[in-house]
Design goal:
106 residues, mainly alpha, 5 helices
């Protein structure tokens, strides 16, 4: 279990709850969940209805590129990102992967 992904996921849930408070007491959790799923899919570069295999493949590709240990060792080709930015993006990828894979958990 990745604590960084958990913290990011909890932050996303908190944001969606706060956004729903202004709806005159109605809870629009379905559209909030869809918005969060869409945002996570965008992070990994997959469609919202992607298969588990596609999500895993996109996550692995991006995680290998952004992993803090590998990113720091690169001399060139960092896509203009600092090590801190790459680490934050890596955390977002972890959170997105975890969130999107929950729909396939049985």
């Amino acid at each position: 279990y990745n604590r960084y992904a958990h913290n990011y996921y909890e932050e996303q849930r908190s944001r969606s709850r706060n956004a729903n408070k202004g709806n005159n007491g109605t809870n629009d959790s379905d559209s909030a969940a869809a918005a969060i799923a869409s945002e996570h899919a965008k992070v990994l570069g997959v469609p919202v209805d992607a298969s588990a295999q596609d999500i895993k493949k996109a996550f692995r590709k991006k995680a290998l590129k952004l992993h803090p240990d590998k990113f720091r060792n690169r001399k060139e080709g960092n896509d203009g990102m600092t090590a801190e930015e790459a680490e934050e993006e890596f955390k977002r990828c972890n959170a997105a992967h975890e969130f999107l894979m929950r729909q396939y958990d049985t």
